[in-house]
What we know:
Layout: E1 5-11, E2 21-27, E3 33-38, E4 50-54, E5 64-65, H1 72-80, H2 85-104
Antiparallel strand pairs: 1-2, 2-5, 3-4
Amino acid sequence: MRAVFSSFFATLDLSLGYKGITAVVLEKGTPGFSVGKKEDKLGIRASSTCELVFQDCIVPADAVLGEPGKSQVISALKFSSRSGPDRQCPVYQHAAISQALDSLKPCG
């Protein structure tokens, strides 16, 4: 992984459901935090998808974004503003439809 920081969401208390979500940013090299296996993905490979390993990792208080257990708003913003494959798919769909329509046009 080339990133210096990793962001993720953790649940402090499963019984709280989405109200227990906490956003965290950890720096590469934080004791107990490491990056594991890089996944071999199909299709779009512009970003790495890796296993995050937490082995006796203690998250420092300054690594928590916002209040613990109140990160549902942060997660909603993060996933509604992604610019990854979900934004690229309509472009691919448009290109595929255009090519299909071009092949259906009468010759000459």
